[in-house]
Amino acid sequence: MIIELNEQQTDELRVKIFKALSDPIRIQIIRYMRRMDKELTCGDISKVIEMSKSAGSYHFKVLREAGLITTRKIAREKYVSLNYDTFKKYVNNFLDSL
């Protein structure tokens, strides 16, 4: 299902995207996810980036709300993957710069 956004909603999404991309930790998360090029657990990423569980939760939430990652939960584990569609539509070629 494709949801069309009006101009104001699109602008609000752009603000969320650029806010999410303005933090060095979130850039590290995105870079690592791109290098691994597969679905990863939040815990595994947090270990590699060396951040606490609460800090990880915050950063993953910001990335998810900006539409830059997708999350699915199985039991107690959360799996995340990059949402390439959002990158292609709003920040084309950004991933190539990492």
Task: Quote the distance from N terminus to C terminus.
Answer: 30 Å
Report the CATH superfamily: Winged helix-like DNA-binding domain superfamily/Winged helix DNA-binding domain
Helix-strand string: HHEHHEEH
Major beta sheet, specifics? 3 strands, antiparallel
Query: Which geometry do the CA atoms define?
Result: globular
Q: How large, in whole angstroms, is the Cα Rg?
A: 13 Å
| CATH structural fold name | Arc Repressor Mutant, subunit A
Strand content: 5-15%
Provide the CATH top-level class: Mainly Alpha
**What's the number of domains?**
1
CATH architecture: Orthogonal Bundle
Number of strands: 3
Helix content percent band: 55-70%
Query: Helical segment tally?
Result: 5
Strand order of the largest sheet: 1-3-2
Low-confidence stretches: none
Task: Describe the 3D structure.
It comes from Lentilactobacillus parafarraginis F0439. One of its GO terms (molecular function) is DNA binding. This is Transcriptional regulator, ArsR family. Keywords: DNA-binding, Transcription, Transcription regulation. With 98 residues, the chain is an alpha+beta fold. It has a single domain, classed as Winged helix-like DNA-binding domain superfamily/Winged helix DNA-binding domain (Arc Repressor Mutant, subunit A). Helix content is 56%, strand content 14%. It is built from 5 helices and 3 strands; from the N terminus they run ααβααββα. Helix 1 packs antiparallel against helix 4. The longest helix is centred in the N-terminal third of the chain and has 14 residues. The mean pLDDT is 92.
